[in-house]
């Protein structure tokens, strides 16, 4: 027995030094918080770092808890997301890879059996001994193949998914398909049924499909619009009071603060930390309780300030006292605007709104951000208190939005473009170990969303320079702080949603973007841009020093042709020629056929010194 114990100890020691082994020191508990559609100027501390003023150019904002995080840890204030849409952005975070390396470009479903695929961040952490927990929005559309069919695949061990929580009434608003009515199963489900949940738990519906299906629901959408003072996005052909128009850009929550969907994410997380039982149940969902013998990885995916923008009444009333400067739009901007970016502006056009509607939209957006800030504070405090009680080291990674959001910037709402307001999303890292992420430190060098996975994995004890982690595209932000990582001259990304295939490269002085291919068909015309005319690339170039709001496209200005061409060549070589991957996922996510392009390997070296 003694020999066996010695042998076991030797094996454990050997495993601890392998590439996937644990660190010699105690692994920290980790909290990752991600918000949704969150503009950086909604946070005072970010504004102060970037402009010297705490308030947004638009007006009053409030963010005491995120500001507190920046005082406690290190802020990477010039972080950029890799794709300006929810699903591809979240894929880059969880996979640690650029879209052109993972093959995930927009809202497609995909499987983990493709040959180039690697485990996701929470799966890697599980292999390092972590117990993983997720509550709220995930946004990953990952599946796995079983018997040739793509089926759902959970990447976290313990999940509280937002849809079941909504159905169970742990929300103020939700949207889903209706499969039964009055206890009777429907022959055909009713699609996209929106509902509001009253304080008494009553569901109030707002759905054109539902009203068409059953006359007893006629007028319910109009009643909800009036009751909750909703502003829906309406195009030029629709009216401002159309109850069936698109996204809810402003309104009031039917429930008080703390009892909204985000409020429940925060309170359930707090209850989970206090739970000492083997199982933990909320509504129809049950997960395992905390295994205190393991390090913990917690992820909270807040929905705010994503539409529907429904701040609780008290927050809304407070922000209605503030006057905001509505971003002004001159239609002459459309004359030089790239066609793909114009496509997004037309889809999300808002400049035809009345000034009162634009103003209400901004007031409620910033009120919603302030409410979410309070929930972040409660979650952080509970996490730190738990670790102090357990006497465990800890790490917090806060990401301010999976991308940004326009509030009539460029005449539109929504995201999906390489403009700064859509792509600029600071990260704050706070650690119980202040030597790695010093309190109050501000890093103005570029960072990217692909840095999140290697940062968390390195903190968890992984040797990210070893073979199993070489697929990661980003850097350990602790190495960036310690000046042990390469300096970035640029950041890059690519997104296909709404605009169509478009990539960007951004330096301190300029941002250049272009169309990467004529269609979205994977594997077809992958190197189209190499031979396409400059005009066909639909280029956009902005001088950030002279034009910080990116209004005047200089891509065809002769004075800037040299700069545009240099940036174009670098971008093409990186996103199309440096180990590009595309996958024929298919409509059912069952594809595993991989297409690659690698005509310029090593082009992504972070170096770009433009010759003016």
Account of the 3D structure:
This protein is globular. With 612 residues, the protein is an alpha/beta fold. The chain contains 19 helices and 28 strands. Helix 10 packs parallel to helix 14 and helix 11 (313-319) crosses helix 14. A hairpin with a 2-residue loop joins strand 6 and strand 7 (149-152). Among the domains are: 173-250, no CATH class; 491-597, Arylsulfatase, C-terminal domain, CATH 3.30.1120.
Quickly describe the structure.
With 612 residues, this protein is α/β, with parallel strands linked by helices.
SSE layout:
Elements: H1 2-16, E1 29-34, H2 44-51, H3 64-72, E2 74-76, E3 79-80, H4 86-95, H5 99-102, E4 110-111, H6 121-127, E5 131-136, E6 142-146, E7 149-152, E8 158-161, H7 162-167, E9 173-181, E10 184-197, E11 203-206, H8 208-213, H9 220-227, E12 231-232, E13 248-250, H10 261-274, E14 279-282, E15 285-288, E16 296-301, H11 313-319, H12 333-336, H13 339-347, H14 355-390, E17 394-399, E18 406-407, E19 413-414, H15 420-423, E20 427-431, E21 442-443, E22 447-448, H16 452-459, H17 477-481, E23 491-495, E24 502-506, E25 510-515, H18 528-531, E26 540-543, H19 561-576, E27 580-583, E28 594-597
Parallel strand pairs: 1-16, 1-17, 2-21, 3-22, 4-6, 5-8, 5-16
Antiparallel strand pairs: 2-20, 6-7, 9-10, 10-11, 12-13, 14-15, 17-20, 18-19, 23-24, 24-25, 25-26, 27-28
Helix pairs in contact: 10-14, 11-14
Radius of gyration: 24 Å
Q: How do the strands line up in the largest sheet? A: 8-5-16-1-17-20-2-21
Spatial gap, N to C terminus: 74 Å
Overall 3D geometry? globular
The CATH topology annotation of the domain at 491-597 reads as: Arylsulfatase, C-terminal domain
Quick one: CATH class of the domain at 491-597? Alpha Beta
Helical residues, percent: 25-40%
Query: Helix/strand-derived class?
Result: alpha/beta
Described by its quaternary structure, the protein is single chain
